[in-house]
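Worked problem 6 (solution included).
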Amino acid sequence: MLMVQSMFAALCREAPDAKPSALLAIVNSALWENLRNRLKRTDHMTLTFIRCEADGRIVFAGAHEDIVLLRAKDKSCEVVPTRGPWVGARPDIRDMATDRELTLEHGDLVVLHTDGITEARNPEGAQYGTERLTDVVARNKLSTAEEIRSAILADLALFTGSAKPDDDLTLLVL
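Solution. The predicted structure is:
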């Protein structure tokens, strides 16, 4: 992960207006080379590069967890899949890396998360899942971003019955 974060930071500094799909393809190529040739490993990862524009557009590329949107206009929740290539699994993904775009309206809310949230398990072994995450967001549709984040984390703790997660948890509510 540190390798990918470093590559991404350097690329964004060098080409701040680059398309997410172009950055994804470059990171993939370097990651493939480092993993296969230098480290002699066959690892790969999922990730999504997201660019938020001042005009409300979100441009993204990659494959990671679904993006959850709460629309301010009608208070509905949308789940936007992030379909794209994994990085590090193939030497070249330029033909598979495409940019997708969403348009946010004033007051829309975006929930980004890692699989540590949706794949958390309760004592019976059931996963928390995207549907439960979306339900918490919908139930709290009149709340602030901070309140929605707190509601998700509280519900997750209640669901798992554990204060200590099995995986890393990353949750960003915008």
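Discussion: The radius of gyration is 17 Å.
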